[in-house]
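Retro notes
What went well: the complex prediction finally ran end to end.
Inputs used:
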Amino acid sequence: MRKDLAHGRPPNESVIRIGLDAADAVRHALLARPAGGPVAIVADQAVVAFAGRIAHTLQGSGIDARLCTMVADERAKSLDTVGSLAAQLLAHGITRAGVVVAVGGGIVGDTAGFLAATYMRGVRCIQVPTTLLAMVDAAIGGKSAVNVVLRDGSLAKNAVGAFAMPELIVCDAQAIATLPPREMLCGLAECVKHALLADAGLAEWLAANAMSIMAKDTTAVHELVARAAAVKVGIVDRDPTEQGERALLNLGHTYAHAIESRHDDRIKHGEAVAIGLVAAMTVANRLGRVGVAQVEALRALLERVGLPTSLQDLVPVPDPAATLRRCMDHDKKRAGRGLVLVLPEGDVGAGLVEAPPEDAVMAGWSSVGAA
Ligand SMILES: NC(=O)c1ccc[n+]([C@@H]2O[C@H](COP(=O)([O-])OP(=O)(O)OC[C@H]3O[C@@H](n4cnc5c(N)ncnc54)[C@H](O)[C@@H]3O)[C@@H](O)[C@H]2O)c1
């Protein structure tokens, strides 16, 4: 299947092009609207062969494409990397009329997106996501950011960033051909979140198609990306500057961040989100927002897909609920405010709940196996 999703509003509009060959789609865009001078391809080293093919295709059409690579590591998602990439762009003679093409997952997309938003006060950007998570989430919405190392050595995630829409996002199943299964699952966790937020039929579809997705069947991947990306596009387009509805994309994330703060080394973000979704659904049930059948349906879907539903699935000895509860208060995103949870409501959808009852919050932790 092929599908275009329109995203953003003039003059900040973007097109998400799903199901086309990535190299062809980028080439087509740059022939339709040429860059003034060379174009920079900023790629994850893990996908250098794929990015090299894009560079080769562009060069074959007379487009001067220069390949720069970076390592996809949260510590490399930094102002230092942005500075070093900017120095490479200057050395390649890339001007204000240039274009940055980001080829990678969310780490490269965020770093190269921030580079594009700030290099010479802003140049055009094209995103070619190479993870499922980036296709349905990170590459969409025009937010980019890098991390900052604090004095104690810890990372302040996404502390410096910008809002700037990429003009084009190309989602090509070939880009995830080499993506490890665990990274595929992390992307699927965000797809489940999108299903809960705005597409009831997507949950059912995911349960039926989980195996085809994990096998990277091209048609299934493109259909999933089209549906899951549409949910994020809808939410971001109604709230482009993050004044309200966009916060709903944090469904499951307050619990997930607490889990990650304890086990950053062994648990991946998407895995923590899967567990966080179960906890949030349990709290919602406690507060009468959803029925018990919905909690069970979510667990069944996550298990069917191959995602964890309990801390025991990931760590030998789960933390005490009280410890994890305290970690929720340290979530940097809500410093200075009381606890606010995004909780599902009704058959599909979610809303913000300020200061939820403590027994319900703790029931969330018990439901995912906290000690
Ligand atoms: N800007 C936003 O709105 C937004 C939204 C969500 C997440 N993010 C950011 O996205 C980042 C996470 O992104 P991600 O999950 O895409 O992970 P990632 O970019 O860290 O990639 C995950 C791993 O997969 C590897 N990889 C990527 N593509 C590959 C491929 N095709 N084949 C083989 N290996 C491949 C990478 O090298 C890395 O080791 C975080 O930094 C997060 O803050 C940003």
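What we learned: The chain has a mean pLDDT of 96.
What to try next: split runs per interface for comparison.
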